[in-house]
TrEMBL record:
<protein>
    <submittedName>
        <fullName>Uncharacterized protein</fullName>
    </submittedName>
</protein>
<feature type="compositionally biased region" description="Gly residues">
    <location>
        <begin position="65"/>
        <end position="86"/>
    </location>
</feature>
<keyword id="KW-1133">Transmembrane helix</keyword>
<feature type="region of interest" description="Disordered">
    <location>
        <begin position="64"/>
        <end position="86"/>
    </location>
</feature>
<keyword id="KW-0472">Membrane</keyword>
<feature type="transmembrane region" description="Helical">
    <location>
        <begin position="15"/>
        <end position="46"/>
    </location>
</feature>
<keyword id="KW-0812">Transmembrane</keyword>
């Protein structure tokens, strides 16, 4: 009799654990989307406030208003870290 009760208890625990896991995934996804939206909004605001320079406010890098060329292209193709000014 004890084994049956233990099996039923284990099944109930597994069901509750699965439901909790699904809820945690849903909440995590919603929070990630909200944080990403605010990150993009702050990047756009910083772009407008600071003249289109590359700013990093969150976890992503955006270059709004940039030329779209690779790194070091404003220095005549010499590459980053060569000490050239522009």
């Amino acid at each position: 009799m004890g084994a049956i009760v233990s099996a039923i208890g284990g099944a109930i625990e597994a069901i509750i654990s699965a439901i909790a896991s699904v809820l945690m995934i849903i909440v995590s996804t919603i929070v990630t989307i909200i944080v990403t939206i605010f990150d993009i909004i702050f990047d756009i605001l910083c772009c407008r406030c600071f003249g289109g320079r590359k700013r990093r406010t969150g976890t992503h890098r955006f270059n709004f208003g940039g030329s779209g060329r690779g790194r070091g292209s404003r220095r005549g193709g010499m590459g980053a870290g060569t000490g050239a000014t522009y």
